[in-house]
Specification:
99 residues, alpha+beta, 3 helices, 4 strands, 19% strand
Length: 99
């Protein structure tokens, strides 16, 4: 996994602040592979409750994590009961690492 312990703490803190303590966060994509280089940070935010404004939540979390990672590009995907489950959700859950 190619993120530091400090970055994991920053991600968890952002998730807790914006989505609550029950939210789960997964790192997926190239950052889970130690043999890869560069790349953005792909996160899956998993929620048990419906989310009213998923685009706004995704953008806020991405911005907060990006700032903590010195401007690194961050993509946030949300899985919630009221949102359509897409194939990318399955990939993120199968290949991702829960932070």
């Amino acid at each position: 996994m190619r993120i530091t312990p400090e970055q994991i703490v920053a991600i968890r803190k952002g998730v807790s602040q914006l989505a609550g303590d029950a939210a789960r966060i997964w790192l997926f994509g190239s950052r889970v592979r130690d043999d890869a280089r560069g790349g953005d940070v792909d996160l899956l935010l998993e929620l048990d409750e419906a989310v009213a404004e998923p685009a706004q939540l995704s953008a806020r979390l991405a911005a907060q994590v990006s700032r903590a990672m010195y401007g690194r590009k961050v993509d946030v995907l949300i899985k919630a009961p009221n949102l359509k489950f897409l194939p990318i959700h399955s990939i993120a859950l199968a290949e991702g690492i829960r932070l």
